[in-house]
Each structure stands twice: as C-alpha cells, then as structure tokens.
Amino acid sequence: MKRTLTAADKAKLASFLRVNQAGELGANLIYKGQHAVLKHTNPAVAPTILHMWEQERHHLATFDRLIAQHRVRPTFMRPVWEAGAFAMGAATALLGTKAAMACTEAVETVIGTHYNDQLRELQAMDLDLGLQKTIREFRDDELEHLDTAVNDWDAKGAPAYPVLTEVIKMTCRAAIKVSERV
C-alpha cells in the first residue's frame, strides 16, 4: 500500500532530487571539460570519455524530469557548479589522461557513497516512488566509470595522485552538502 507523503518526506525527496540533479550536471560538465582537452591530447581516450559522458547526460535528463515532475527547486548554485565542474574536468585533463582519470575516480567514489547513503535512507523511510531503482542504476554506472578510470586508464598513476584525489573528493563532498540545501 502506498502511503501519503509527509512534509518531512517531501523535504527529503526535494533534497535528494536537488542534489542529484546538481551532481549529474557537474558530472556532465567535468566530462565536457575533459573531452575538450583530451580529444586533442590523447584521442585514444576520447571514446571512453564520450561513453561516460553519454551516461551522465542520461542521468541529468532523468533528474531534470524528476525535478519538474515533483516541482522541486533546483540548486541556486548552478552557475558556480557549471563553471567549477568544467574547469575541474579541463584542468585535470591538461595534467594528462591519468590525472583526468584520477578526477573521475575521486568523483565517482564520492558519488557511489552518496548514492548508497540515499538508498539506505529511502529504505529506512519506506519511501520509494521508483527512485531507488533509478539511484541504484545510476550508482552502478558511476562505479563502472570508477573501475574504467582505475583499471583501464591507470588513474592511480596520476601526478600527485593522493593530493589530487583528496582535493577533488573534498570539493565533491562540499558541493553535495551545499546542494542539498541551497
């Protein structure tokens, strides 16, 4: 039996949709920035970037639709996330393919954890609305990107790998916290 959404349920759903849309927007622009550089500096990686980017475009389109369907206000931080995500993608790509893949690994590690946390919350709330299936599917795509970055493109061989990935992870975690609310 489907239960009626409480005000707290609606607020939690709005937060999930807002942050997930913002995250998928960021992922799109990271890959756009990476592709803009790597298609020239390492054309061999371009098909991999395009494949991951295409999945992210699908994720963003899905959350765009869900935001509209549930009448949720998107994050006010969109212009900042757009500029920052593209810059992150392009800057890491300028450091080389391994650095771009270290960026992918760091981002997808944080997003995989983020999606797992949301799945646990939705299960505890006994609130689905079809969102669990979507989040699970998208989480699996993100973890596939992480595996590709590490196993196929040697992300861990990036210059200053520990520092680079930790800075990117901290940036992603901060963006998540802000986008949940603002």
Helix vs. strand class: mainly alpha
Summed up, the helix count is: 6
Q: In percent terms, what proportion of residues is strand?
A: under 5%
Number of strands: 0
Characterize the largest beta sheet: strand count, sense, and whether it forms a barrel: none
Q: If classified by CATH, what would the architecture be?
A: Up-down Bundle
Series of H and E elements: HHHHHH
- Quickly count the domains: 1
Question: According to CATH, what is the topology?
Answer: Ferritin
Reading off the top of the CATH hierarchy, the class is best stated as Mainly Alpha
The radius of gyration over CA amounts to 16 Å
Terminal-residue CA separation: 33 Å
Basic shape: elongated
Estimated helix fraction: over 70%
Stretches where pLDDT falls below 50 for ≥5 residues? none
What would the average pLDDT be, to the nearest integer? 95
